[in-house]
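Annual report, structural modelling task.

Input specification for the zinc ion complex:
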Amino acid sequence: MKAMVLHRICNLEESSQPLHFCEMEDPSPREDEVLIRVSACGVCHTELDEIEGRTPPSFFPIVPGHQIVGRVAASGRNVGRYRIGDRVGVAWIFSACRKCKFCRAGSENLCADFRGTGRDANGGYAEFMTVHEDFCYPIPVEFSDAEAAPLLCAGAIGYRSLRLSNIADGQRLGLTGFGASAHLVLKMVRHRYPNVAVFVFARSEKERAFALELGAAWAGDTNDSPPQLLDAIIDTTPVWKPVVEALKNLEPGGRLVINAIRKEERDKDTLLSLSYAAHLWLEKEIKSVANVTRQDVSEFLQLAARMKIKPEVEEFALKDANQALIELKTAKIHGAKVLRT
Ligand SMILES: [Zn+2]
Ligand SMILES: [Zn+2]
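The model returned the following structure:
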């Protein structure tokens, strides 16, 4: 099969070609696994974290990619849920132990043996991949393959972060950063909480215009002050400055949800400007979002289908994955990037 492969950690400022297009042996499914012929795979900011070593792959060479849509091409002898030809998706959660206290309580996203697709197992930047049948999801008919791909990570984790924000209808929600996940959160909020006003903080004029077009009440630069304080803010940026800015913009008792698998080190000294009185006092909370559960993914897919949420998608050929990653790194974002195989 054809695949885009990562051989080692590299710095994207020095290398614009981190992945290599190559021919690999087709994977074959184990007894509980399905073999999926991939047709679309979303490009996620987490891939930048894997490539640059902030959340390094557990082996090399590895095929990245964890927002996968395809069709079942073969299955192991114990597979019972899917038939050849069924359309399925695979998300960031490749597997978890299913035995620990977190798994038993439905928090498999916190499992010590959590394995990420494309980081701890080969992912979807390829023509084929294998996964345990319990970690696949049927894709609702409402979506094309390319439309469904970004729902599997950006959408599902956006759904989890919106849940963790505790937002209620009538309140004010901030979104710091306006990439693939945040734009889906905005669409979700518009449908689910029609009386929530959304305030978007984004660096580029283009992202701010896009946010207003999708129904944001206000859009400003990362360090602009919103006209009112906010009840909750979801941060999807890779850096620290927006965290400090967001805490300042919260109502007393407000909650900041950080939806990022890792933060970059380059502006960490911004944290030294944290003032307990201005940024933390009055019961302000900070909560991170870790991974997703299968329940998050399934629930979000159903919700997205009911709400007719469709992500804005920009398609790239598999061999152009490096270009998609570099554009993501340099924030030339307009919706979600998807590779077609
Ligand atoms: Zn992702
Ligand atoms: Zn576990």
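Residues 44, 46, 66, 92, 153 surround zinc ion (ligand 1) (CB under 6 Å).
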